[in-house]
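Narrative progress, year one. The postdoctoral researcher (J.K.) led the effort to move from monomer predictions toward full complexes, under supervision of the PI. The following entry was the first complex the group processed end to end, covering 1218 residues in total.
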Amino acid sequence: MNSDQGAADLLQVRGLTKIFGSLKACDSIDLGIAKGEIHALLGENGAGKSTLVKMLFGSLEPHSGEILWNGQPVRIASPAFARKLGIGMVFQHFSLFEALTAAENIALSLNDGAPIGTIAAKARALSYSYGLPLDPEALVGDLSVGERQRIEIIRCLLQAPELIILDEPTSVLTPQEADKLFETLERLRAEGKSILYISHRLEEVKRICDRATVLRHGKVVGHCTPREETASSLARMMVGTEVRAVERMPAAGIDKAGPLLEIVNLTRKPATPFAIALKNINLSVRAGEVIGIAGVAGNGQGEFFEAVSGEVFQQDRASVRIGGREVGGLDITGRRLLGAAFVPEERLGHGAAPRMTLSENLLLSRHATDGSRFVGKGGLIKSRAIRDAAQRIIEIMDVRKNAPDPEAASLSGGNLQKFIVGRELDRNPSVMIVNQPTWGVDAGAAAHIRQALISLARKGSAVLVISQDLDELFEMSDAIAVMHDGGLSSPLPIAGATYEKIGLLMGGAEPGHAAAAHSTEAAEVA
Amino acid sequence: MRIELVKRPQRSALFSMLSPFIAFALTVIAGALMFAVLGVNPAKALYAYFISPLTEVWQLHELAIKAAPLILIAVGLSVCFRANIWNIGAEGQFTAGAIAGSLLPVLYPGLQGAYLLPLMLLTGMIGGAAFASVPAFLKARFNTNEILTSLMLVYVSQLFLDWVVRGPWRDPMGYNFPQTVQFSRAARLPELLDSGRANLGFVFSIVAAVLIWLMMSRMLKGFEVRVMGSSPRAGRFAGFSMNRMVFFAFMLSGALAGLAGISEVSGSIGRLQPTISPGYGFAAIIVAFLGRLNPLGIIAAGLVLGLTYLGGEAAQSSLGVSDKLARVFQGMLLFFVLGCDTLIHYRIRIVGRAGPATGTLAAQEGAN
Amino acid sequence: MDIWISILLTIATAATPLLIAATGELVAERAGVLNLGVEGMMIMGAVGGFGAGYLTGSPWIGVLAAIVIGVLFSLLFAFMTLTLATNQVATGLSLTILGLGLSGMLGTSFVGQPGVRLPNIDIPGLTSLPVVGKLVFGQDPIFYLSIVLVIAVAWFLFRSRTGLTMRAIGDSHGSAHALGIHVIRYRYLAVMFGGACAGLAGAHLSLVYTPQWVENMSAGRGWIALALVVFASWRPWRVLAGAYIFGAIWIGQLHVQAIDLSAFSNSSWLIYQPLALLKSLPSQFLSSLPYLATILVLVVISRNKRLTMMNTPASLAQPFVPER
């Protein structure tokens, strides 16, 4: 539909292809972005969105295809050249330097050699004019994710780009912060800038984007005008098939059940310079229920997970209780032996050892709980039994792989996550704590994982889900608590929870005033 | 033109096998070039270096004597390196083991029983392990860089040995030579065969290699070592403790280095003297890598490195080149091994000079 | 009085090679590269510097040769770790092993030969001033170079844009690459600078400190330089302080070994008693003091986990393979 109107387009992409090994990450992509439009690039994880924009920004080299800028063919050999053309980029995984100040970070992407002081002053002025206040002297390592994103945006705007690429910008923001970002984007559009907006969040694409290009498995599967579509029609284009909705069965008898997991006045000092202190956290999860913990990344979720899992001990032994037992002094193995299971946020390098096979990764979390099954006398490993168990999990969780027992790193994110969750479910744990269960996982696998966790709860286990994805939490949880700056709000029962209420708490509003406070002002406080 | 690395989806089994052989071949080629530069006939020199030391039975015994400490130490180091713990002070642990193991025969020269030798070996191992526990403790407790501390202790141990043999333990009947009394027969490691000097130390090294291989490939402890080394965070998630691993790896490798030290002293030397090692502790680092950190591979690698020592001595006497040549060969070998290991995880692609900053992409098509 | 001035002078001479080598390594580490081959590059610089000076008769050509050899040796390391992405720790070790072996081989014929010495400077009128004359105006040229080097590196890292880029690469090579910074190219330069400094430090050993060639004459100074960088938490001025503390320890233990105790018999007991105690120790114990002191300062500095984490370049020793 749009590829014929090329002449007027600021950026034209024709037949762009990128191959990694045997994988065609981008397969002959066509795309056109007009001046003054917000163009959405939609697609699931692994659809090729990031690869495409990295080629547009010069950090990846295409195998074939053509890029036209203002109608002229260009070869974007480096990010510096992209910036010179007028292309700016806000990365999903920020390309910031934690040990440097905001101003130094900005200076690094400007090629004019101006003194840091001048750059700082310019950045400060620009940031206030766009309503994204920023302290140029602050060390990036000390800043929240929202503030870090501001640096990325200001850094990009200072180069006066014609085209701004934003990669999943709202995935790290509260709903209110996202609103603020949309205002900025609309203003930029009004100034005649073009924006390539990458997202898998359909509601926001419908809300702010003029046109959309949808990718699936590295190919363009359609162009559309988001406002004329429904969320479900967009989802169908993105996923290719209908995604089965997750069913949250009624939780019978939760009220009578005792708590299986209790956190009582949990406090933790920051272990590293940039870590968050945990402040007096209280929570209990009963048999049969799923409790969600919402929060913007970097508000203490990782520290909380480490404390509850036993990767670090607690001085106050009573501050974590599993099945009524005080476990503050037990390590992760001791807590597992009491029936708890854990799935950390980072899959490669935390939940799984990347260069080890799936069966070795099965042994990773279960060498103690299934000691007699997997480890024989004198510490000899029973490889046969482990391989068989891994095979069973692979079948139950529908893990797709390219070898009988591949290395963890060779699996896609979604398939590895299915294996890791399956590895823990296979033990039928009485307490399950999952951090970011479906981050970066495709829709089908995500639904599978969420359903499996709900089923586990309904069979009588306590399930605690930490997530930055509010949709996911609303889909799964019986109650949602919010983590902000190392503190945890009391859980809101799902019936009374709204995106706005949760969003305000995520932004740091006092729990008591959550319902009353006015949305935008509260977000300012954050 | 530039060289680019392209990550392989899975590690290459072929290059895992081949890389030590390619590295050895490259070392020989580089060695030939070096001989040519030195004005020595390369064919003759290489023969003198790598072949002639293997032509007689007694020489094979000498090879076993050189290889034994290298294998023992390298097997221990392979556990450290697998756990991503950098013990480079094996030379010091070797020395500490030699000193500790010599306690009994030097202080009680009258001891004769069959218990003497086992006790010496045991105290040697304890000495090496205890000395290795110092950097382990500093790393676990204070997070101190183990590379630097373990290395500094090498100098300390050598100075201590120097003092011991010149001071308190000097043989009073030794015409003021800096050395201890000659060990009694009961304190000497028995020789294996009548055909040469090779002693029980070589057997220790083979047994140790097989046992450690068993541990690393078949046992939970070995799994723990591999997990902690390849991804420590996942190891902590598994319930393994990094601090315990630091002590385990250091003390295991220290004990083996200590065993090598006392075996050397009670085997081929027979007394304590200021210099007891031609750099075994450092050469063993090369052995460990050449053996691809696999204890069975290390047996072969230890023999190769042992050969560089013998070849160095042989080349010195027959060609008049410096015996430092052995060190040069060893250094080159390690370089080539590390370079070849890159091929296991990456394909190497040589790319022509990049075009001008702008231009069409069409020319780039099919760069692969 | 004179004895103290001469002690101070020898301390400066002992500190200079440590200072130069550590400053070079500091730049490499700030860019995220851990080069454990300092000892090897230094000893190669020493043998090359001695050899070139001995053969040409010009100590300056010796200095130049040492720097060139240091750079060439560091290029070997850079090619391995940066282009072939080998393990930096292991590669650095092999550089040291190779350097010690190669220098021993190349230097065989130099052993026992009289070398040339880089002359101290002599400014008429100033050098002969009492007390400060020799200290400030009468040392060897490399000493002055080392001070200039520290100032220049401090300015470069914290005031210049290129220095900022170096620090950024050391903090996160991934981010730097995403911004289009040529990580590998900068790292090559940083490693080569480190090599030049190590070579120069070696030249100082064989052309100033002891103008002759002795096998293994670096005696672990390269390793101490590496420790100094950690001790200094990657800050040039603290390297200067650290190098002089170590120079003092190194010289102090030598002086104590050589000292005639009776010369101090009427000094205050505050000086006499510690000296007498040290003097009563075997010389080997005194010789091991620099190494023990290194361990001690490493422990003291690394106890403070927060400080170490804040200062250590976050991508130090991590291999980097750009995705294209």
